[in-house]
Amino acid sequence: MSVSASLLGKVDSVSALRCGFASLQPISIKKTVQKFGLKIKTIQWRFESTEGSADLIKGYPKYMKFLNDFVMQKIKLPSRIDPITFSDMLTKKAQEEFEKDHELKSALGKVEGETSSARPFLEFVCFLRKRYEEKREKSVLAKTEMFSHSNLPFSFFTNLVMSSEIYEGFLDAMQRKTTLYETMWLRKYAGNARLFGLKFQEMKDSLVPLFDVMEYDSFLQRCLGTLVIASNCDSVDSFSSLEFIDVKKVDAEQLTQLSDEFRNSLDRCVSFILSMEPSAFSKMPTTDLNNVFSQMLIQ
Amino acid sequence: MTSIPKGCIFLDSCVAFAEILGEDPDIMDKLKLDIRRRGIRCYISQSAISECTQKLEFTEKFFGHVFRTFAEGYFNNCRQQQGKNPNDPISKDDFRIFASLFNELRKTMGYVLQKPLRELEKKMILNIEQILKGKTKPDFSSFLQGFIAQALLLSAHLRIQKVKFLVNEQGFFKKNSTIPDVGITAKLLANVRYPFHKEDADNISSAWVYMNTSGEKTVFASFDFRTIISHAEEILSLINLQCADPLYAVHYL
Fold this sequence. Notes:
The complex is a heterodimer.
Chain A: H1 14-19, E1 24-35, E2 38-49, H2 56-74, H3 83-100, H4 102-112, E3 114-115, H5 119-148, H6 154-186, H7 193-232, H8 252-276, H9 290-297
Antiparallel strand pairs in A: 1-2, 2-3
Helix pairs in contact in A: 2-3, 2-7, 4-5, 5-6, 6-7, 6-8, 7-8
Chain B: E1 8-11, H1 13-21, H2 25-38, E2 41-45, H3 46-81, H4 94-108, H5 111-133, H6 140-167, E3 174-176, H7 182-191, H8 198-214, E4 218-221, H9 232-239, E5 242-244
Parallel strand pairs in B: 1-2, 1-4, 2-3, 4-5
């Protein structure tokens, strides 16, 4: 069994959402159509990437390369691991995973399609939310399996699970905000290029800070995962065949520093989401262990 | 005309956790209702917030230790000693292994961990009893992973709730930045009978500082009978601050 995959985060993470959102710009397309013998002018909208010719699907691997290169600047790997080769290999893996993920590619493709509202983006958020719900149990179990195949502290995995649970709150916040803009303004201003553009930009501006805090959290998780995995690899090629992660092989100072930074970043994300959506994170899970926790904490 | 102070309640970390975990809902609902009706201020001190963080870290270490003991082959070794295959599904023969494993764990743990460990043991054993009644019987690894997953999920959510209540102040109590008085903390530690800890002394000392700087009648509310409520009279005679169970807290104001 390979323990490396879940440590580096999945393609349906904040990065995918950022890719499907942050670079979008509404472009108006004016058409004249013949209807009942009359010439009718229509305005439609297309969301285009602000990065010139790059489209969203091509943009994702580029974005992952940018992230992985940035990770290599943040962490110091053992001398036997070349950071450039390791970064390229991680990008290649992410790209392969993305290529296999037809569902995600198709959902991203729809965001690019012609439309007269923010609906495709909203649907993309809903798609990611549904996918998260379906994979939630599997994702927690993958972390428990990693716990059993490592001697990393329990808190390391609590951070990872917390990050996933925050991602759910993040998607909910995105969904609510986008729905609000869609129903209140964007649908109404579909025929008015200037107002539609203004409101769309306003929606983006209000969501970008949320992306920023979430993405930093995702980046730190990637740094931690990369550090832990690379430290346990004899060579770049042994990346996917790791069967056990030994904490003793990881530089303790870097691990502590990154773990603290990651934990603080998780708290910041929760705080930010709550300031946007005070009703977020209102449910505590009910499990067989609630009583054990109560006895630990209320005494 | 000066307004009459309505009083103030400082919360111990255990009361904050009772609110977060939804424990003792009758008492907590009554406390919240009384606070709202009477317009009483309700605070949690910086030292109690730090204690919350420490308790969460301690809880994670407890689970890490227990599950690590299970996961690191102890169970499999016991099975091998009994001449059985480690990967076989869970069977009634495994009860004896669990009994000896929990006994070993009990020997390594202090007083405060005995009850939670017993609760975890009870949950695991009753779960196995249920599994054995069913048709599909998982192997030990899958069984254990189910419990690790629950512990991870709850730990993660408790940390989220900690931010919600103690950073964003989305509960019925607010943060208070009062710093404990070193002299009062020392006085409490020197005079209150064991069991009484530095964290308890700091939390009570913070409430004392607030009471003396604001002039408001202040009560320190705690569910902790063993270390705090059982010493309420000693503390009152030492520093003139009332400690009370949340059930009675407002009646001392």
